Amino acid sequence: MADAISALASPIFKLVLEKLALLIQDEILTLAGFEKDVKMLQDKFMDIQKVSEGAEESPRRSEVADLLEELKDAIYDAENILDMLSTEVLIWNEMRQVNTCPPVAPDWIFRLKNRSIVNGIHEIMTRFDSLLPRFLSKKALLNLVGEDSVGKEKEKRCPARSSSVMDPEVVGRVEEKSEIIKMLKSRGNSVDGRVSVTTITGMGGIGKTVLAREVYNDHELDGYFDAKSWISVSDSEGPINMSRIFEEIIAACAKDYIPLGRDSLESILQHSVEGIKLLLVLDDVWTENLEDWKELEKGLLKAHNGTRVIVTGRSENVFGLSPQNVPIPHIPLGKLPHEECLKLFARNAIDGDESDLVNKGVKAIADGIVSKCDGLPLAVEVIGYLLRNKALDTWSDILNNDLAKVEEEFRDEKHGILFVLGLSYFHLPPELKHCFSFCSIFPKGHEFDKDELVKLWMAHSLVQPSKLVETLEDKGRRYFDRLQELSFFQQQPESEKYSMQDYLHDLAELVSGKYSCIVKGENPSRIDPKTHHIALMCEKVEGASKSIMKCKKLRTILMPMPRNSLTDFGKTLGKMFQTLKYLRVLDLSSSNVVELPKTLAELKLLHYLNLSRTKIKWLPNELCSLLNLQTLKLLDCPWLLGLPKGLSRLINLRHLEIEEAFWKYRCPRQPPNIGRLTSLQNLHKFCVGEAKKGFGIEQLKDMNDLEGSLHIMELNKAERAAEANLKDKPRVQVLELEWATETEREIARLKGKTPDEHDAEVLEDLEPHSSLTKLRVHRYCGKRTPSWLSRGKLQLLKTLILEGCQNLETLMLGRQENLEVICIKNMQKLRELPAQLECPVLHTLKIINCPDLIQLPQSIPELQILKVKKCNSLKVIPRLIYSGTLVLVDNPVLEGFPGNYSVDFRDFGARIWRCMITNCPKIHGLPAKYYNSCRASMNRKLEIGECESIYFDPSEPLTQLAIDRCRSHTLLEAMNIISEYKFGITSDSVVSLHYLQSLSISNISDLISFPTKWEVQITSLYISACKDLEDLFDSEQSCKGSLPRLVNLCIRDCPKLSNFPEEGLPPKLELLVIQSCIRLESLGPPDTLKDLTSLADVCIVDCPKLQSFPAQGFPSSLQHLRIRDSPLLTEKVSKNEKGRGPDWPKIMNIPYLEIDEVRPSPAPVFASCSQSLTCFKGH
């Protein structure tokens, strides 16, 4: 006998009746004589609806479950027939529009062509005629209500609850929460050096996830951990995916490192968590395998000893961590006491407490409802949300009738608490019932993307057009939000993804019944032929294809597999397409599909096609016959070379999802007549061409649903640009307007106008909607700013980019209240910016390659980033920037400030964090108060390049200094200034020596050795591309005395360097990197490295003449040694006929080795080494 809840037919009645009403309005049905058949079907629908709804309302519904199930099958079949008929009408109307209909008797031909559909309608009516008397014969048994009252509203509904109750404070569990937080902060919580873990266990719906989330988000832990990661494991469907867990932890720790291809995921994890105090929550773990925990624990062992892990699961032995076997903290959650449940219920149902229940006279009823929930917080919360929308006088009916009905069907050993969750489903409106039950197709633990799920709902017509001014997508999102509000979905912590509790997933499976199926193996057990939705969770489909093709009514094929899995369809697709003609959703993503068979044209009802992450090269023309298609996903298809020319036939297409790189590199022009796709929402690029060929700019006229970014190219070919109608596209947030290069322009087509006149007219006509947030104008040849920009009409504009606008001499912007970023580049004739720039929140101004520019604005109060590059005529910069970043590059005449300000840049700014000055020969100094009133902990960087002399104030804090492409005397001058930290008269100067941490020197061609006559308190020294460097340090003073705090020493590309200093290296050195020093033969005396008791990481790369390691070897502190492309060193440790080379004993005890031809390294890439190599790239 069918489950009564899954047999409910009412959710689809409303949907099919709406389709019937729309279909009857089409004139082709009248012309072809179909109208009478469709109206008769509509009448029979309404007759059968009255008696079936009465049966569904009956307390004895389960006694007619089979009859309801039969009715449901008939309605679904009717929907298929109606969708086929609607599609044929759509095709016929398209043919009439393009004049390809047969010239004689089109109505008669239409009826003849669709005779099978007519027969299908008659068959459905016959089935309804058979069902109606059978329902009526059960009238006495079911106590069916009279026809007049069927379908009437039973309850008065209150307004939907506000979002303020979405995330209420947890009721109860105070002691448990306090105990867990205490354990997380305890220092003595680890056992035998293992990672500290706490388990929270209990039955489903008891509140494990809620309690863990409360702890995770508690303000008492703010700043206590270096990193936090919440991972929803939900591994009930199979083995736990440890790789995914590792990857999410790595992402949460977000260290900057460069992994090697040979590194294992475990090694990368160890590196990522090293020294980090991590809070990790693993939610909803099912595995009881202790080995899985040990694997994770091994990856976390290098984390800070304050790292804590919380695991939630149903089993006391989750992860094999039974408290009987492993002495760890264990929090078992029992049922919530009745009093606490009542508090939770009152808050969710009436937004009050127990006293409010008494005052409203519903305390006794509330007690009864709460008792039914049996101490399960999830059940109490769900039913409380449900009753929030009910009039108080209906509560007793819900307790005595509805709960009794649902309890009869769910209160058994199999379904547990589903009776109360079933009640929440029972009271959903029909459209939400449909949407919820569809979610059963996804596996437990699936992370839902709201917008993607809405597209799937739309594909099945579960979201119908609204009379309100809202898109289908907006309406679908409203459905989703309502389901989330009723706790059917929960948002993942720190994520835009959503999850569904396992018990709610069980309910979805129950209500979807036989119509949904998840295929997990190549040879699945029998699939019900009436199945509508299939999810493929297997890597090979060919074995299951026979069973799948028996499902003639199939509507969905989804593949919710991990992205790194590849599904093999073999040679089954062609046959499947011929057989499964009712498919609405086809997901072939991450499969081995390289081409689509021509039988794709058989899928006339297809609304959603996903070909992402496949190797497909071409889309067949048959695709263009799928007029119902709404979503076409082509993400990460690197071999796809273009789109079919007939794409404009897909008049219902709403989402064309392709990466921007496809439009940029592989598709030079959009398909012709794209303007027919008036519902399309994303078109990244539109390339203007000949109007008669379907590429005119007027194609954009009616595409008013476009959203996101729009890039219009080759505007030099535009005629009647105003017809693009950009003002009526409020969802376009980013607009790029681009003209062709000067050599590509077709001057002859300008009809007597000069290029600047043509461009000015076009840009004026392309006024965007006032909601635009980013505008880029490229290669505009006009001489004036468009009025809609100069008059400040774009009041939401945040970013303005002007590039290659060769004739523009003055930029007029008007008042821009929200403009934050201005970037001006390659403007050859631009002479001035407005003296008073009315942009009160502007924080970034970048001006690049404007050779005639002579004037900047006089004041920009909030400016934080100022970059001026290649402005050959600019002599002075007003005092624009007071904090942030200053970059001055290749400005040959730039001197300083106007008026009475000093030309040596003093008093320029008070809180500049980073300053870069390169090839500005007339600038000789930096501001006297360059870093004044800044905290020492903040990172301050000064970069000097191609400058003869730069003065900076030694009394101000500076953390990083980089000198590039200068002469050695510039370095000596800088070192002399740095030394003033040490020898300054005031106490402030002495303190400030601790600020400088890093010194980087590169491309100093006449530097023979690094100067050591001053004591410099730096921790990192980087020397790169100094071609004349012969000795690492000079002989004036030992480097041990001049660099006493040096921790990181990195030398790269110094071809004349042959030896390290005889006196050894700085004593606190932890990292040593030597790369591309082709003449280096020795690392110094025998004890050079042995005496460095803090040395942990040594990297030697491309040193072909380096002959051996130091005689006394390495210190015991060394953890990681990397040797690459240094054959003489490698030979000393490699295997040979006599065993290992002579230097093998020197390195054999180092934990992590990366040496050519020695052994595969299990080592992580150490942060220090990788970051050092990275820093060289910029110097």
Give the arrangement of secondary structure elements.
Layout: H1 10-24, H2 27-32, H3 35-57, H4 65-97, H5 106-113, H6 115-137, H7 139-142, H8 174-185, E1 196-201, H9 208-216, E2 227-232, H10 242-253, H11 265-273, E3 278-283, H12 290-300, E4 308-313, E5 330-332, H13 338-350, H14 354-359, H15 363-372, H16 377-387, H17 395-410, H18 418-426, H19 430-438, H20 450-459, H21 472-485, E6 490-491, E7 498-499, H22 502-512, E8 516-519, E9 533-536, H23 545-549, E10 556-558, H24 573-579, E11 585-587, E12 608-610, E13 631-633, E14 655-657, H25 660-666, E15 685-687, E16 708-713, E17 732-738, H26 755-765, E18 774-778, H27 787-790, E19 799-803, E20 821-825, E21 844-848, E22 865-869, E23 883-889, E24 911-918, E25 941-945, E26 960-964, H28 968-983, H29 987-992, E27 998-1002, E28 1009-1010, E29 1020-1024, E30 1031-1033, H30 1039-1042, E31 1048-1052, E32 1071-1075, E33 1097-1101, E34 1120-1124, H31 1127-1133, E35 1135-1136, E36 1139-1140, H32 1144-1147, E37 1152-1155, H33 1167-1176
Parallel strand pairs: 1-4, 1-5, 2-3, 3-4, 8-9, 9-10, 10-11, 11-12, 12-13, 13-14, 15-16, 16-17, 17-18, 18-19, 19-20, 20-21, 21-22, 22-23, 23-24, 24-25, 25-26, 26-27, 27-29, 28-30, 29-31, 31-32, 32-33, 33-34, 34-37
Antiparallel strand pairs: 6-7, 35-36
